[in-house]
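User: Can you predict the 3D structure for this chain?
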Amino acid sequence: MSINEIIRILYAPLKAAPTEPFIREPNGSHIELPPNPRYKKKLGSEVLILDLETRPLKSTEDFEKGEYDWRNINHVSGGIFNHYTYALIHGYDYKFIHATNFEDRHATWIKPSALANHIRDYKFIVFLDADAAFRFMHVPIEWMLNYWDIKPQHAITMAKDPWDPKEPQYNSDRFNRTYTNTGFMVVQNTENTMPILKAWHECPDDRRYANCSQWKQPKFHEQSAFGEYIRYDYDDYVKELDCGQANGFPGVEISNCQGKFIRHYWFEKHLVKVDFRENMMNAITMPIQKLFAENIGQIITKTEENVIH
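Assistant: Here is the predicted structure, written as structure tokens:
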């Protein structure tokens, strides 16, 4: 039996349906799905979970030397494992693209072209940075699309960055509008998607958008370019989520960015591995709990009195 089959079997009793009435938090509270969900069936291979990296996986190098150890892998491998496992659980396509660095701009500028080159083959692409993770690996993306009310016209969905009144310009554009974070994106195949991605990719060339080249290297690179220019031409086709929905992580008080569904660990990146570990342990230990709960194989013996026979 392959690891793919094992993971699907482990998660089979945990998986939520696209129209599940609610998702239970670990503390027992519920996140309820709004009425009239749009996505009622699983999309399967119509969805691509996409990873983009210019860096090789250090864990792969260790594996090839016979030195792989989960405890020693970095957050990049931890995030990639989270994304790949999520795709396996729900039957989505998955791609890891090892991209070449640009000569004249920051590595994160690989995002628009990679999305453009694959969106024609899918209904949705879900992209995450390596330091971002699915919080609930048993919850399908269809459920989140329903929860966020992603409509057919929404070409790109992103969550806002935190906004701090003490530093109002740090995550804001020239119009004092909060940036959206490109560390998690849901890209939908619409008639406007390719024009958006093309405009974004070509933005630093300064042909359509004067001075966009200023974001080739300085923070926040392609994210700043999208926030300063692209979204203003395509505002009707961009869905902006509150920061806490799909950005940040527990402990971030600014804008309540605590990663309700997608966690993005801009700091404390090692916690990506913790999220993955906790999700996997839930799936692995549930069958063990079943053994004890149902006394399978008569593993529990009851005694009436504590005496030596």
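The CA atoms of residues 25 and 31 lie 7 Å apart. The longest strand covers residues 180-188.
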